[in-house]
Amino acid sequence: MINILYIAKPDDPVDSKWYNFFSNEQNNEFNVYLTFENMNGEFNYNTVRPKLLTSNVQLLPPFSPFSFKNPLKSFKTINLINDYIRIYKIQILHILYTMPDAIWLNFIRNIKTILSTQGTDVLVTLPSLFREKKKFNIKSLLLFYLLQRAFCKANYVTSTSNIQVEYIYKFFKIRSHLIRTGIDIREVINKNNEKLLPKLLKERPYIFFPRFLFPIYNHELEILSLKLLEEHIVQKFTFVFVRHISPDKEYESKIINSLNEIKGINYLILDFMDKNMFSTLIKNMTLGIMIPITDGTPSSALEAMTLGKPIILGTADYDDEIFSNACLKLTKNDPLQLAHLINLAIINYPSQLLETAKIRVKKFADRFEQMMKLKQLYLTN
């Protein structure tokens, strides 16, 4: 069996789709270990570890973040990761979010290493760091050097969208493998437990905003558009939002205050949920809206497309081969345009978009097919 150590977020629904695929693989070819950066010490390791064990994932104690100010902490983390590799006879180290975890790869020796980018890490953080580097900011120069060295040192780099592949080549002259998170199409189609829905959502139609309440997901623009809708439309629907397991309370409060300014609105903010509840919400929604400032290939959009549900996406650089002419999209961050698209979507969403969407997901975002590409990298000498 092959022993893989993932550096990933145990509470991240996207990361879990990668490592759980291999921990539960039918052929039982992999032993899966997981460790993570616990920056503020807020993550409850002892609570989550037993849950991961039920998915055959061995959660190892967390490490401290990289620090120029406290090199002793960084040195301890380097030793800890290398100890894990030695003790558990790790053969592959796979880092599932490159900024800043890729830096640790500089201090790993004699095993196969893979870096995966998922969106914001490459599309926002990397260009920002590059701009600071050009100003001869010493810290940024050092960080960029360490990241560049890590990317060049990795045996393989993977990315979840074509635009990320382009960015990586632009900055590092490295060819990344396009491997999307994708979705389990069969599972998405077959799962629907309406009993999980809150009573309010069983009684009236709802519009779902599936991205967490964080600033990067651009909820302010969504609220501005809701204020422009006619009152009878606002009163017809419940508007559903989701908070993260580690919420941004200040931002959430700001959004709630804005929602309360809308006359006649019914809204619901749900706590962090498991994938069964999440899929049920998508399957029973009237419309899904997701307009983040930057994005990869969102699983929530792919699930909706598979189920023939109307969605509106924002202006982020989405992959044309999946999303072009397969859903409604903003051309600019304009609340008036979004309000117009919402009206269109709930009254007369173009049926040809729904049909195209199903075909595209099946062709380009089937998780089994995508993970088989990754497995090939794992097994290649």
Task: Give descriptors for this structure.
single chain; 381 residues; alpha/beta; Rossmann fold; 2 domains; seven-stranded parallel sheet; 18 helices; 13 strands
Describe, in plain words, how this protein is organized in 3D.
- With 381 residues, this protein is of the alpha/beta class.
- The protein folds into two domains: 2-182 and 366-379, Glycogen Phosphorylase B (Rossmann fold, 3-Layer(aba) Sandwich), CATH 3.40.50.2000; 185-364, Rossmann fold (3-Layer(aba) Sandwich).
- Helices cover 49% and strands 15% of the residues.
- It is built from 18 helices and 13 strands.
- The protein has a seven-stranded parallel β-sheet.
- Helix 5 packs across helix 6 and helix 10 (219-228) packs across helix 16.
- The protein is globular.
- It starts with a strand and ends with a helix.
